[in-house]
Each structure stands twice: as structure tokens, then as C-alpha cells.
């Protein structure tokens, strides 16, 4: 038997982002309790955001080289988030979620730690030696989203010679994009 929430869950999954956005804005305007819930989920004060020292503006390099994929520090990372003392007592409001300019992903600013962001500082290029019979004049470019997905071992990062299959070489704080307009991303 189908649960009562299952059709609604399917409708959420099928609805375009702009429809969900409009519904959320309407709930915010029209329903007082919904306004409080939405505000608690999406807006925080400046002192609730976690950012690296000299890193909130994207300045300063607080990243470290990542030798191996070490997830054993997960518990200390959680402690870091909860025990980090705010640098100011500002009550200015800000969005809770932001876009990281290093890893190019959304992140929760309340859970940002010095090990949250994993990224490569340099570009990834197709290794032409790995595509020996590929002629771009008749086959098209080597560096395509399809080739990256199908042949991740054939694309190498300039910074560390690692492939798309391997862990990124840098780890550090997420760095919020504060300069450009809010990017439109798929949800």
C-alpha cells in the first residue's frame, strides 16, 4: 500500500526547481510558522558561520597537501565545528549555504572545517598518450563531459599528476564565493 507522503515525495522530485522556489516563497509570505522554519533552515548570523583564519574573503592559503584519503579524523572534525569560537559577536544575517570557489560545490557554512574542502588547485587535461587513435579533426575534442565520465583515468591534473579517479591533492576550508552573482545550480 502506498504511504500518504509517497505521491508528494514523487511530486517534489519531479517538480522543476523554479516551481519549488515559488512555492517556498509563497509559504514564507503567507504562513507565519513556515516563515520561522524557513528562516531557521536558510539564514544564520555571521558569528554562526565557520571560516578559516583569513579565509572568509578567499585570501590566504589554509589548504594542506592531501597525502591519502584519511577519514579517521571525522570525529575531531565534528568537534572542531562545535567548539570553534566565533571571532565576532555580529548579529548581521547571512545565507547559511554558500558556493565554494575551490571545490565548486555548495556547502553549509555552519559545518565548515579545515578539512571540509577537497580540491585540485590546477586544471585537469586529457592525456593525449591515453587516446592514441583519437584525431580531434574527425572524432571531436578529447576533453568532453562524456569522455571524463567514461575514461576518468585518462585525465590528469597539472598540480599533482593524479587522475579524475583519485582523491584531490589539497584539503582545507571551503572558501565562499563572495564576488560573483549567485550561481544557478541543479538541485
In brief:
The protein has helices at 6-14, 17-30, 32-42, 74-83, 136-139, 145-150; strands spanning 43-45, 64-65, 93-95, 97-99, 106-108, 117-119, 124-126, 155-157, 170-172. The protein is an alpha+beta fold. 12% of the residues are buried.
Q: Give the neighbour order of strands across the main sheet.
A: 2-9-6
- State the distance separating the first and last CA atoms: 29 Å
Let me know the largest β-sheet.
Answer: 3 strands, antiparallel
Number of helices: 6
- Which structural class fits the helix and strand makeup? alpha+beta
Q: What radius of gyration results from the CA coordinates?
A: 21 Å
User: Percent helix among the residues?
Assistant: 25-40%
Strand content: 5-15%
Number of β-strand runs: 9
Q: What is the element string, with H for helices and E for strands? A: HHHEEHEEEEEHHEE
Based on Cα principal axes, name the global outline: extended
Task: Name the poorly predicted regions.
Answer: 54-61, 68-88
Mean pLDDT: 81
Task: Describe the protein in words.
This protein is an alpha+beta fold and 187 residues long. The protein is 29% helix and 14% strand. The protein has six helices and nine strands, in the order H-H-H-E-E-H-E-E-E-E-E-H-H-E-E. The protein has helices at residues 6-14, 17-30, 32-42, 74-83, 136-139, 145-150, and strands at 43-45, 64-65, 93-95, 97-99, 106-108, 117-119, 124-126, 155-157, 170-172. The strands form four sheets. A three-stranded antiparallel beta sheet has the order 2-9-6, with no helix packed on it. Strands 1-3 form a two-stranded antiparallel ribbon. Strands 4-5 form a two-stranded antiparallel ribbon. The model is unreliable at 54-61 and 68-88 (pLDDT under 50).
Amino acid at each position: 500500500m502506498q504511504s500518504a507522503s509517497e505521491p508528494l515525495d514523487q511530486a517534489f522530485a519531479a517538480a522543476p526547481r523554479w516551481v519549488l522556489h515559488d512555492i517556498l516563497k509563497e509559504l514564507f509570505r503567507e504562513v507565519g510558522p513556515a516563515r520561522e522554519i524557513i528562516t531557521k533552515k536558510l539564514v544564520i548570523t555571521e558569528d554562526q558561520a565557520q571560516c578559516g583564519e583569513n579565509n572568509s574573503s578567499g585570501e590566504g592559503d589554509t589548504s594542506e597537501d592531501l597525502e591519502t584519503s584519511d577519514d579517521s579524523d571525522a570525529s575531531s572534525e565534528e568537534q572542531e565545528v562545535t567548539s570553534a569560537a566565533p571571532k565576532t559577536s555580529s548579529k548581521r544575517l547571512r545565507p547559511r549555504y554558500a558556493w565554494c570557489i575551490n571545490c565548486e560545490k555548495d556547502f553549509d557554512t555552519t559545518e565548515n572545517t579545515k578539512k571540509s574542502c577537497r580540491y585540485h588547485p590546477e586544471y585537469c587535461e586529457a592525456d593525449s598518450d591515453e587516446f592514441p587513435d583519437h584525431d580531434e579533426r574527425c572524432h571531436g575534442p578529447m576533453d568532453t563531459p562524456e569522455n571524463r565520465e567514461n575514461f576518468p583515468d585518462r585525465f590528469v591534473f597539472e598540480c599533482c599528476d593524479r587522475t579524475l579517479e583519485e582523491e584531490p591533492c589539497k584539503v582545507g576550508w571551503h572558501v565562499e564565493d563572495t564576488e560573483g552573482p549567485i550561481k544557478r545550480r541543479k538541485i
